[in-house]
Amino acid sequence: MKNREKMDKAISADIKVLEYLSEKVGDRKTKMEAYLDLMYKANDGFVSPFLRKKESDLGPCQCHVNISDLASDWGWHRATVRSFLDRLEQFSQIEREKRAKSVIITMTSLTGQPSSPDVVHDTPDLVMQLMDVLSDWIIGRSDTETVGASCGRLVRAELDRLAGSAAQSCIQGDAENRQSGIVSAEDAVKEKALGCIAYAAHQKVLRKFRFDDATPVLQFFHQELGGEWDAFVDASKELVELVLGSKSSVLDFSTVEGRECLKSLRKPFLALVAKSQESF
User: Is 37 within the bounds of a domain?
Assistant: First the structure.
């Protein structure tokens, strides 16, 4: 088992074998089931219902989908879907042509043209792995203790990798700055991990507002701003500063009435952002 990461053999398996290996876990698809779903969609030239009014000139082994539909089909969070597709692309299982709100996926495993054995695939970076773990915590499918343990394991693995690289540098005669370099690299890894957790916490809290009423923002846009988009850009910046507690800097809203109007829009504005976050 120690040499399993060195095994670079291509494995041929009938689709029925993959179906057999898929294990159903409630309504949520496993990664194997999600992979099979992509294979079926690509084999059938599937186009998402949302996209059928648009032209989709698909080639062999392609499907045209959006992240929201895949998340709904698989019972996953959108961030998990994006991370999963990133992983498959790293393993040369798919190729993606990204559109504005959709993506055309080519299942290279169905084309009969496997990737070259000379290609070295990078392992997913720390941020991708952390966000993959944290995505379930964001939507309440994983608890804090479990996620904390997983994040800790990922960070320790990354630190061990850095230590191994540093030891190799020492062997090659670069020992003079080894200790300071290790400390600096370890701090960078920890800061990156803390940043991922902080970002996920922000998403988790913001998600609570997704069912609140955002219509006052729409009314404000039409009635107070006259439907002017550049004015709403300025107002949005002001609202973010109010939500984050930083000092306002937009002169148009420096009056008492203007400030009170914006303060009343803080919760509807958060609802608007939360709804938008769910659709990305």
Answer: yes
> Is 158 exposed, middle or buried (CB count within 10 Å of its CB: 0-12, 13-18, 19+)?
buried
Does any domain span residue 130?
yes
Asked if residue 206 lies in contact with residue 277, where contact means CB atoms within 8 angstroms, the answer is yes
Domain that holds residue 244: 215-279
Torsion angle of C-alpha atoms 202, 273, 252, 216, degrees rounded to 10: -130
Q: Does 252 score more than 60 pLDDT? A: no
Q: How far is CA 217 from CA 62, 261, 279, in A?
A: 40, 11, 18
Q: Residue 5: its pLDDT value, please?
A: 47
pTM: 0.59
Q: How many residues does the chain have?
A: 280
Last residue of a domain, one of 207, 227, 262: 207
Number of DSSP helices (H) and strands (E) in the chain, helices first? 12, 3
User: Would you say 42 and 85 are in contact if contact means Cβ atoms under 8 Å apart?
Assistant: no
Average confidence (pLDDT) over 55-79: 86
pLDDT tens for 73-131 read 888 888 888 888 988 888 888 899 988 788 999 998 787 655 443 333 344 578 888 88
Q: How far apart are CA 42 and CA 127, in angstroms?
A: 29
87, containing H or E segment:
helix 78-90
Q: How does pLDDT run across 128-167, given as a tens digit for each residue? A: 888 888 988 988 888 999 999 999 999 998 888 888 776 6
72 & 149 share domain: no
Domain count, the chain: 3
- Domain match, 97 and 21 both: yes
Domain contains 57: yes
